[in-house]
Amino acid sequence: MTKTRTESDTLGPVEIPETALWGPQTERSRHNFQAGPLMPLAVIKALLQIKKAAARANVAADVLPAPKGQLITRAVDVLLSLPDEQLRHDFPLHVYQTGSGTQTNMNVNEVISHQAAKLNPDLPILPNDDVNRSQSSNDTFPTAMNITAALAVNELLQAVADLHEVLQTKATEYATTVKIGRTHLQDATPMTFGQEVSGWAAMLAHDQAAIKQLQPALFRLAIGGTAVGTGLNAAPNFGQIVAGRLSDVYGLPLTTKTNKFAALAAHSEISLVHGGIRTLAADLLKIANDIRFLASGPRAGYGELTIPANEPGSSIMPGKVNPTQAEALTMAAVRVLGNDTTIAVAASQGNFELNVYKPVIISTFLESTTLLTQTVTSFTTKLVAQLAVNAPRMKALVAHSLMTVTALTPHIGYEKSAEIAQLAEREGTDLKAAALKSGYVTSAQFDAWVDPAKMTGI
């Protein structure tokens, strides 16, 4: 049997594991809500920073004695210095709890209180009256949501920037490598592989720009709104002081210059930014699919690209190489597309003065950013950076294509050109043989007019 100690809250006594730093409200939640993932540590760390900033703001406003503020700060510093696996031990609550995140807010308050008691047992620090002074779960939790979301976006943007850089390098490397283009999954006119890759790179550049433009919405914080947005029981200028201190900690231009009623009742900014991430996921899905299809084969597929053999591709077929990095990224991308629906619906559920889907909103947002950051990073280093062109295959497909006939249309017209292409297809010959058989062009004319490299516009 685990040894316990007895603590009480407003509902009565509670038995708590003897060595746990949490208190009765955390213990109640631990037993009442056991479904789903644990609250992300990124949210916990943000709440700890908020409590530290709040203690200093309360001391500055003369609503909290300086010794207590200093002890809260010391306790938070100890907790933030712990390795993640050790920190996790005292933050055991799940995402699927009260929709305001109240139990996680109180978990943080209680752990700080008990950590402070370990540092100085002669100066009691109360979870509600001291650690939570000038605050409500309703404004601290959404503040932590926005901060963690903004930080996660920065990490994702860096991963995308790295992929973009590698694609730009590939576009330059293969700027003059001619291949056949494809539309409707059918042969089209020639292009260069560099041009194809430049399209992928441009998609990512647009996505980065869009997300950067949307990200500042996350910098507007709810702190100072307390229970319903009025700021009841908050010290004067509390929100502004806390936001300033948090800006220094995170290097972000955080502000409380926002409507607090909206900040508590809606999470439009997170939904908005995730919309940009959803668009990025859709583009990554397209890029990864293009690469894996172009690399299909090596002998019975398109076979235009060669991908690295990172691991055996089959338990039964020796020597098989699969596009596993592309598969991982596409799975992550479709998960993000589904997550966008979860966030959009959850963000719409702000009944009156409070949205009570906060934990699932931030948990889902962080799942999206983490999944994409990790899979994009791996996709970049373990596939795209090692991608190589099968130039002979590309050249052969161009030579065998019927759509280079398009170059003849300015000279002999659409109908005669179509007749040549259909003849080549019907008789299984190459385009030049069919063109000469048609009598519409000479050999010299065909060679002068049908130049795949010139058709690419380079």
TrEMBL record:
The lineage of its organism: Bacteria, Bacillati, Bacillota, Bacilli, Lactobacillales. Residues 13-338 form the Fumarate lyase N-terminal domain. Its EC number is 4.2.1.2. HAMAP family: FumaraseC. PROSITE patterns: FUMARATE_LYASES. Keywords: Cytoplasm, Lyase, Tricarboxylic acid cycle. It comes from the Bacteria. The active site is at H184 (proton donor/acceptor), S314. Belongs to the class-II fumarase/aspartase family. Fumarase subfamily. It catalyses: (S)-malate = fumarate + H2O; L-aspartate = fumarate + NH4(+). Homotetramer. Involved in the TCA cycle. Catalyzes the stereospecific interconversion of fumarate to L-malate. Substrate binds at S100, G101, T102, S136, S137, N138, T183, S315, K320, V321, N322. This is Fumarate hydratase class II. One of its GO terms (cellular component) is cytoplasm. Residues 405-457 form the Fumarase C C-terminal domain. GO terms for molecular function: aspartate ammonia-lyase activity; fumarate hydratase activity. GO terms for biological process: fumarate metabolic process; malate metabolic process; tricarboxylic acid cycle. There are 2 substrate-binding sites: the catalytic A site, and the non-catalytic B site that may play a role in the transfer of substrate or product between the active site and the solvent. Alternatively, the B site may bind allosteric effectors. Pathway: Carbohydrate metabolism; tricarboxylic acid cycle; (S)-malate from fumarate: step 1/1. It is found in: Cytoplasm. It comes from Lacticaseibacillus zeae. The record marks E327 as: Important for catalytic activity.
